[in-house]
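Lab notebook: predicted structure, single chain.

Context: the supervisor wants predicted structures on file for every construct in the current expression panel, including those that have not yet been purified. This is the next one on the list. No modifications to the sequence; it matches the entry in the shared construct table.
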Amino acid sequence: MERARYRRGFDAARTWAPSGYHLKYSGRAKGDFFLGLLRVTGEDDTEWNRIRLQRSRTITDIDEVIAGVRTDHSAFEISEDVLPRVLSLIRILAEEALSRHGDMAVSKKRRQPQPMLTVHGRTYELSFRERQKQVRCVPPQKGQRRTYDWQRVTPAHRFEPSGELELHLSQGYAWKETWADTTKKALEAQVDTIFRAVKKHAEEQERARLERESEQRRQRAEWEQREAERKRAEAEERERRQREWEAALAEAKVAAIHASRTDRFATALDGWRLAGEIRLFCAALDQAAVRATEPAETERLRQWSQWGKEQADSLDPTAEGRSLGPNEFSTEPAGDELRPFLNGWSPHRPEKEKPPTRPAPSGPEPEPRRGFSDVPLDQGWRYQHRGRAQWWRR
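Prediction complete. Output recorded below exactly as produced.
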């Protein structure tokens, strides 16, 4: 009836849940009630299910815990004589933990019931051990058989349960404390001391957690500051490189235009000079044809003169439709044409390019000769000697 009245109260409280939340509870049939105010969006469902399933795997009712330990107390090193006292201590500790908003539970997953004390937000494993006392071993009477046929020496002492208990609380391998019966105080009188030690340990753990979180926040702030400085430095470096690249690109365009115009103008000048020389030579051929006495010689000289004039017209830049046009003068170089004037900058992005690696020579380098080169050169019409002379000028 008491549990049913609680359930009706919880069902009525659901209608008063704040907007955006709904009330859930666990423990309808047995065990402790657990209430949760969850968001209707479902963000808290995972945590609620974890708590609910965890509670379903444990026994929190103190009577059921004591019944389980009474049935199987093999997890404790005790004798049957002190079992009632152990069960009494478990109840005392559970009631004291309940008054401090804790509980005493036993996991259903373990083969041996092992009480777990939860208080101050920490869970500890509870165990008992009965101390052994050394007593004098009474030798067997004459005619009685020894325990083993091979036994030749009878022990003088043996160990028996003393009735004195030790209580152990542990939290993994990190923390472990022991209390025991003394001549002045039994374990029942040390319950307050036990819970003061547990509270002190919980406060130390909480203080260590706060210090650890504070240190983590400090390290996080330092890392974020270093990261912001690094990103700011990278942004400044990118801006600097962008400015330098744009300045180098502008200078390279001017230099490339000047070099292109110079090269085209020099080529045109060479062609104009060569065309003039060819025309003078053709004029000399015409005069020689006039002075020639044989008609065949005259015809041959005039043919050479006509062919030379046609070549001169094709090389003369001043002729109509030749290389010195308005488009070639105003054309701006781009891409790889700017690379020789960028001083190592890439013509496509603001970054330096690695210099091209020259392949290692397969054999010994030939001894260089003065004025001689095997590099293939253009054998077309040139006014000046650029490298190896043409075959007809040797």
